Amino acid sequence: MRDNKITALIVAAAVVLTGCTAGGDSGAPTPAAAVTVEDPWAAATDTGMTAMFGNLTNAGDRDAVVIGGDSPTAGRVEVHEVAAGPDGVATMRPKLGGITIPAGGSHELTPGGDHLMLMDLTAPLRPGDDVSVTVLFEDGTRIPVTAQVRDFVGADEEYAPGGHGHG
């Protein structure tokens, strides 16, 4: 009898704890779980690094923030932006704070704008190949994406001085 009461208490505690952690107060999904990546693609390259682009759409009711990612093809995946430097030249640099996809909105990853940078590539990426990237969000959510590799020459950006040793 005593064992049944202990078991019932353990089950009740598990139910209460699960209700508190599974999606918050309303059972709604975490913000990033509502994000999709449409038309993902990456620029072809033989060595070094490349960028991934596409359209991030957030069907949720809360903002979602991309903070990075990972890929079996890259040593690291970072959120980058292209912005005018002090000399007016478009400069690529890490984007502090990540990329916010507004609730019910979208955010385009574009050449010459915000993008995911695949760095320290382990193999060439040829046009027509696919590259797997896992997009990481501030809330810990991860979204797997398969991006098609395409020919692309760049958007006239330069790498920030003292950046990652590229350029």
TrEMBL record:
Q: Which SUPFAM superfamilies match?
A: DR1885-like metal-binding protein
Print the keywords alphabetically: Signal
Endpoints of the signal sequence: 1-24
Q: Which residues form a coiled coil?
A: none
Concerning Pfam families, the annotation shows: PCuAC
Superkingdom of origin = Bacteria
Task: Fetch the PANTHER family from UniProt.
Answer: BLR7088 PROTEIN (PTHR36302), COPPER CHAPERONE PCU(A)C (PTHR36302:SF1)
The protein here is known as Copper chaperone PCu(A)C
Q: Which organism is it from?
A: Mycolicibacterium parafortuitum
Taxonomic lineage is: Bacteria, Bacillati, Actinomycetota, Actinomycetes, Mycobacteriales
